[in-house]
Design brief:
Blueprint: H1 3-73, H2 75-104, E1 115-121, H3 136-145, E2 149-163, E3 169-177, H4 180-185, E4 191-192, E5 207-210, H5 212-219, E6 229-232, E7 235-242, E8 259-262, H6 267-270, E9 281-286, H7 292-309, E10 318-323, H8 324-348, E11 361-364, E12 374-377
Parallel strand pairs: 3-8, 5-7
Antiparallel strand pairs: 1-9, 1-10, 2-3, 2-9, 4-7, 5-8, 6-7, 11-12
Helix pairs in contact: 2-8, 3-7
């Protein structure tokens, strides 16, 4: 091969390699273009979203400034609106707290779904005589013959005249209870003891267990209160115990119970020869393994046997078993829920309305579905909202 041929061959090889390198560069660029486009699109989206948040923040700040200006311009209307709103929120919160404590939550007793109430029921009446309360003779028969409950207690409302530490007369709300009461509720005292079976004996029944609030109010929370006496109805009662904070019966009462005293029946009250007095609620805790239906069946058969034994006492009446929660709050559940709904509606409509201002505003925009909110005051002239009048040539 001559020198000229060698040079020509070398030049041809260099040209081919240059074309090959150019082709490879074009192919690499073409393969990278989609990725670069996607990256560019992501950067644009991020920029748009950042711009959207900035626009939303700016619009929100503008709205807040406008609201502050309106409140400053009309302080009377602002004060009334804020006052009504605060009252509505407070009322709604108070209503919900009561409904939550009384209706929505379970009773504040251990394993409360096992605590039942036994009521006398007349199938011929929609509302039984005495509202489901029972008499002393009937309760004592139930107490002696029942086999479904760990214990069956009787509870009755009562009240005493007392005096404040300063000597002023006051009324004390109390519950007369049999000794099973604290066993049924599984309630232990904070100080001292609870009522025992021998406290129900007439003449030995002047003992009292204090509610926690009464102990704090009347005795200043003195830790040595057990063994002292308190004057109730001008008689001295010995304090044997104090209940812990949060314990009260009944839970649906207007205020906590102050005192718990023994329910000591006298002979006249226990006799079926005297008049009928339906004054007591019977409550019991189911024995392990016993269901509500089984307890209801057993109490129904017992009531039927007592009806045959004493046909003139409460003819046709039987015993019905319901949960204690239904017994305590069943009558108030519906109207308390209605009160809660009314409170919620009252809160939503609590802010008073005022006339629409004459200055019109345009709210428009879009960003990320939130919208770029801008408040644009228009002119205050009446003709601002109308289209401009068409100019006419003089005739």
């Amino acid at each position: 091969m001559t020198e000229d041929e060698a040079n020509a061959f070398a030049l041809a090889q260099v040209g081919d390699w240059t074309a090959f390198a150019a082709a490879q560069q074009d192919a690499t660029r073409a393969a990278a273009l989609p990725g670069l486009a996607r990256a560019h699109g992501c950067l644009e989206t991020i920029g748009e979203r950042s711009h959207g948040w900035r626009s939303f923040s700016a619009g929100l700040g503008t709205d807040l400034l406008l609201a502050l200006r309106v409140l400053r311009a009309q302080p009377g209307c602002a004060a009334v609106a804020l006052g009504v709103l605060a009252l509505a929120i407070g009322a709604a919160t108070a209503i919900f707290s009561v409904v939550d404590a009384v209706v929505l939550r379970s009773l504040p007793f251990d394993d409360s779904n096992r605590i039942l109430a036994v009521v006398e029921h007349d199938p011929k009446r929609v509302e039984t005589l005495g509202g489901g309360l029972t008499s002393a003779p009937t309760y004592l028969d139930w107490r002696h013959h029942q086999s479904s409950f760990e214990g069956l207690a009787a509870v009755g409302n009562t009240a005493f005249r007392s005096r404040t530490p300063s000597g002023e007369p006051s009324a004390a709300r109390a519950q007369s209870v049999t000794w099973e009461f604290f066993q049924v509720l599984r309630a232990a005292p904070l100080l001292g003891r609870v009522i025992r079976a021998d406290d129900e004996i007439r003449g030995r029944h002047h003992v009292v267990v204090l509610g926690h609030a009464f102990w704090q109010r009347q005795f200043g929370g003195a830790p040595d209160v057990v063994g002292r006496t308190v004057d109730l109805d001008e008689q001295r009662w010995q304090i044997v115990g104090v209940m812990p904070p949060g314990f009260t019966y009944s839970v649906a009462g207007s205020r906590p119970t102050d005192l718990y005293v023994p329910l000591a029946f006298d002979e006249a009250e226990c006799s079926r020869d005297s008049g009928q007095s339906f004054a007591y609620t019977a409550i019991g805790r189911l024995k392990p393994g016993v269901t509500l239906a089984q307890a209801g069946d057993q109490m129904g058969r017992m009531a039927a046997g007592l009806d045959r034994q004493y046909p003139t006492w409460t003819p046709g009446r039987t015993a019905r078993v319901v949960s204690l929660q239904d017994r305590l709050v069943g009558r108030v559940r519906s109207w308390m829920l209605m009160l809660l709904a009314a409170g919620a509606l009252g809160w939503t409509s609590s802010v008073p309305s005022r006339p629409r201002p004459s200055t019109s505003r345009l709210v428009a925009g879009r960003t990320m579905g939130w919208g770029d909110v801008a408040v644009i005051p228009a002119c205050s002239r009446p003709s601002c909202d109308a289209p401009p009048a068409r100019a006419t040539q003089p005739g």
